[in-house]
Structures are given as structure tokens and as C-alpha cells.
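#structure-requests
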Amino acid sequence: MSLDRWMEEEEKEFVSSTLLYNLYDKAKQYTKSFQKILNEEKNLIEEIYWNARDDVKKVKMRKFSEKIVAIDSSFEPIPMSLSIGKIAPIVIAYIIYPTNIKPEISVILSIPEELEEVSDISFMAKINELIVMKNVLEKIDVKDNIYAIIRDGEFPLNEIFFKPYYAKEREELMKILGKTYNLAKNKGIGLAGIVKRISTRHIAYKYLSKEEFKKICRKKYTLLNDYILADIILERGEYLLLGDYHDIIRYFELINPKNKTNLKKVKENIDEILPEVWNTNIVLYKPYSNMETPVKLLSYRLNIEKILEICISSTPDYPPYPDFMNIVDKVSMEYSRELKINDLFWLMLRKAFQEEEISILEIAGKTKNILKFSNIQKLELINRRLTRFIK
């Protein structure tokens, strides 16, 4: 029997017995746990449903002439064994929708001058998205008919409420946000963020008593999250306004009471430096698409019904998000995947280390290559790609 045939038979045997049995066993355990939580929270879900339905409104689909700038980023950490922090080339893309103008793409290396300053790649990607947002605002002319600039993710960033890795980074974030808000205000353009993966509990916070909500916050798992509740409460084309960012700070105080003192300082800091933050509206809506997936919209200086009409009217059946977000998401991801900038950077880093003669470490009579790949299969893939490229 050939090796391939043997592996195929072994795989069938494994899947048909061990794997499926274990998966089914885990599924049954989860189902029991889920049923228990559902029994505990069903009455609260119904209470929230009937209270929230009074505040639900409907949005109609329409043709629109307003243009949207959509921004997104993509990155892939370099799989090196060298532990010098989290570094990666970040691809940031923005598009103007609807238009035939070619998407703008930039590549940013999240590599600080000093390694002690190395931070989280995701946070650096967000910072650079804001810089692009600010730069776009500087270039926009009134005749461009831009109604809003929307990023894939929350806006403003939640990092303004929580201490990031370094205080200096938060200061930088506040500075960029301040310039962005001022430009948007002066040019009459709205700002927004669209959140696809919703994990907050704002609906429960809004419609439950303070004591009931505190009990929910103490639970490790609950069905009273915004995604599940919005899916139950909303029908296609409906939305629920949950309030503005004044409510956010009180929400954070309840879900994290130990951090209440720090949040008080944060609130004072925002009041002093960036009071515009509090004017951000929080909306959950459901498009007309067949999947009926709830989406969160965070908007600043935008007519809620108007921006929702644009979002819902531009949403296809799949993916169930506004087309401008689907396009910019694909542009940034495909560019990153096709060009493999992280692979190219690894090669340049290797070259730079070798030129400085520091790629080989000599310790205790041993020599080690400190630029080894931690993922050997990844290295083989790069070699194959380079071979094709050289040919």
C-alpha cells in the first residue's frame, strides 16, 4: 500500500471514530451548559425584548449620491524565532465609494527606532489607520461630495478609555484624534466605525436595572450580549439607537468596577482634550440581506437615518456588510497576501543583520543564527516563491 493511500485510510478511520466521538461529546457538554444559561436568562431576554422594541425604528433602502471613504488594514506578523517584539508590515487601504477611482494602498512598518518601544501590532495598525483618515481629510475638497469616512472597527478607538501599552502611545492617539475631529468638523464630514464582531453588552446595560446588569457582568458567559440580543430584537432594515459615548464610560465603570478610579481620570482627560468623543452615537442595525447579521455603527457628526440608509442600501446578501467595507477589506487583505510584504521584510532584515555581522550569536562556545524562522514550512514556502520569481 502506498504512503498516500495508507494516510488516507488512517485519516478516514480517525475521523470516523476518535475525532467525531470527541467532537460530539464536547458538543453535548456545551449544549447542556447553554441550556442551563438559557433557562436562567430567558425571562431577562424577554424583558429586554419588549422594552427595546418600543425604541426600534425602520430604515428604507434608497439610491444615494453621497460618497463614502472606507479604510481598513491588514497585517501578518513575521514568524521569526528572534524575540524582539511584535513587528510586521501593515497594509492600509482606502477607497472612495461609489467611484471608479483606484484604491489607495500604503505599507507601514510597525518598527520603532528603539526596541524598548515595541508595542502591539494591532494598536499600531489602528493608529496608522487614523493617520490615513486624517491625511484623507486634509486632501478632501467640498466638490468631492464626501459624506463620511468610515473605518473597519470602532471609532473612536476603545484604547482612549483604557491604558494602552505605553502612556506615550495614548498621547499620540489623542493628538491624532484631535486633528481628525477638527478637520472633519471644519469640512463638514462625518466620521464612523463599523463593527462586525460585536462583543459588548450595551443593550443589557440600557434596558436592565443597575443591579441586574451587575449580576450579568459577574458571569463568565451570558446570552445577554449585543449580537444575540440585536438578532432577537431587530427585524430586517431596523435599528436601535443605544445612546452616545457619555453612556460608554458609565458602562465601562459597571463592567470593570476595579478600574473606576482610572476611568474617572480618563473621563476628565477626554473632557479637557477631546470632548467631541462624547458626541459619538452607538447604533445596532440589521440589513435587508438574507443572513440578517446585526452590525454596530459608531457615528460622529452624521445624521443617523441618513448614514444607515447608505449602509443598508449598499449591503449585498453576502457578505452582509456595506459594500464599501467589503471592498476595502478585500483590497487590504489581498494586497497583503499576494505581495507577502512580511516575507520580503524578513529577507531585508536578514540582509541588514548579515551586513552588520550580528546575525550569528556566539555564546558559551556555541554559534546560533538568531534570525531563524520559527515556522520551517513558512521558510520553505518563501523559497518556492522566490525560485518562481527568479525564474
